[in-house]
Write a structure and sequence with these properties.
With 356 residues, the chain is an alpha/beta fold. Helix content is 28%, strand content 22%.
């Protein structure tokens, strides 16, 4: 089969690799019908995730059809159309028992495209399939479903839930890429007073308005002063960092009110300064986290009900699997191309999303 293989910092190739097969009784092999690229994949290519070894197939988000299962798999069978979660869960370790699947110590966690071969391929082996793939209803098409593999659960769990977003809150989301936009959308489920989106790209700010932001501001247009004005100098109740660079993390810490929450979602490849000299007396809570994907079934129900924005709002580019390297080029130059989420692979389902 063909797959997108990591060959060291800055190097990748769409090439022939051996077909995956069942290696453990809990495995499922999935034929990939739709896959996408995550900002984390770009971090890997930049060398920010050194544990990814050359020769690894990248990718951790996909929709496809089960073609083979191990003898212990009970929740899916060949022919089922499924969502492949970005997180794999053994279901037995301490953390899995606490629904903290991202911290799995039984061989799961974030392993696809990280510790084992991932989803940017024609086929992928998924360990612990009973807890790591989700059967899809006919009403959700592949382009919409792939958004539930990572960006929606990450935004919801690591941004909205960790930030304790509540009714009447003022929320600032710094970074209006796919994760930031999903954070805006899921924060709106909690009827905040206002949601403010900050980004450098006007096209992304427009997308933020489409998915529910009340106020948008360019990163070079004084977002801190705007937040100060809108909150009578108090600061935001919740600030979500969705970029992953030191400057934006430090900016988030400056915009939060005393007693407020900073939820870091961005993947950081460099140290950021924690200014305790100004934060120590403000009762500020700062959270970090890797997504657990415990919310995926709920979010799938929300998408079926039309309560989440789907592909028309978030998918900007479409490619076939042989165009994988072109898709990476477009996604990596998002400032120039306007790319948000890119979907790669021919959809195999003709259903229409409730929000399409």
């Amino acid at each position: 089969m063909k797959a997108l293989v990591f060959h060291g910092e800055g190097k990748k190739a769409w090439q022939d690799v051996p077909d995956p097969g069942v290696e453990d009784p809990g495995d499922a092999v999935i034929r990939v019908d739709a896959v996408t690229i995550c900002g984390t994949d770009l971090h890997i290519l930049k060398g920010d995730v050194p544990e990814v070894t050359p020769g690894t197939v990248l990718g951790h988000e996909a929709v496809g059809e089960v073609v083979e299962t191990g003898g212990d798999v009970r929740s899916v069978r060949p022919g089922d159309r499924v969502l492949v979660s970005c997180i794999t869960a053994c279901g037995r370790c301490r953390f899995c028992r606490e629904n903290r699947f991202g911290q799995c110590r039984g061989g799961g966690g974030w392993i696809l495209g990280h510790m084992i071969d991932g989803t940017q391929a024609e086929y992928v082996r998924v360990p612990f399939a009973d807890l790591s793939v989700h059967p899809l209803p006919n009403s959700v098409n592949s382009e919409d479903a792939v958004l539930l593999a990572d960006i929606f659960p990450t935004a919801y769990e690591v941004g909205v839930l960790s930030g304790h977003v509540g009714p009447g809150d003022t929320i600032v989301v710094v970074g209006a890429g796919p994760i930031g936009l999903a954070t805006v959308a899921t924060a709106c489920l909690y009827t905040p007073r206002r949601v403010i989106a900050v980004d450098i790209a006007p096209s992304r700010l427009e997308s933020a308005r489409v998915v529910g932001a009340d106020v948008t501001v360019g990163a070079d247009e004084g977002p801190e002063a705007l937040v100060d004005d809108l909150t009578d100098g108090l600061g935001a109740d919740v600030v979500v960092e969705a970029v992953g660079i030191p400057e934006t993390f430090e900016q988030c810490a400056r915009m939060v009110r005393p007693g407020g929450r900073v939820a870091n979602v961005g993947v950081h490849g460099k140290p950021a300064t924690l200014h305790l000299e100004s934060l120590w007396s403000k009762d500020v809570t700062i959270t970090t986290g890797l997504v657990d994907t415990f919310s995926t079934p709920l979010l799938l129900e929300m998408m079926v009900a039309g309560r989440l924005p789907a592909a028309p709002a978030l998918v900007t580019h479409r490619f076939t699997l042989p165009q994988m390297e072109e898709a990476y080029d477009v996604f990596s130059r998002a400032t120039d191309t306007g790319a948000l989420k890119v979907v790669i692979g021919a959809p195999t389902h003709d259903a229409v999303s409730p929000t399409s």
